[in-house]
Amino acid sequence: MMLGPALTPPSAYHLPTLSSILLEREKIHGEMFFPPLDGFARTFYAYVLHTHIYEWRQNVCMLNSNCLTGDILSFVPKDIGIGLRQHREWLQNALEVWLEHYGSIDSCDPLSVSHMRAGLLLHHLGDLALRISFSDLYMLARRSATADDLDTATESICNTLAVDRTCTILDRTFKMIGTALDVRAASQASFCDFELAVSLFIGGLLLWATHHLRYRPEINVAMEWVDRHFGNPHTTSPLLAETPATGDATIPSKLQEIIVALKSTHSVGYANLLATVLEKLCGEGIASQI
Question: Is 24 in the same domain as 88?
Answer without folding.
Answer: yes
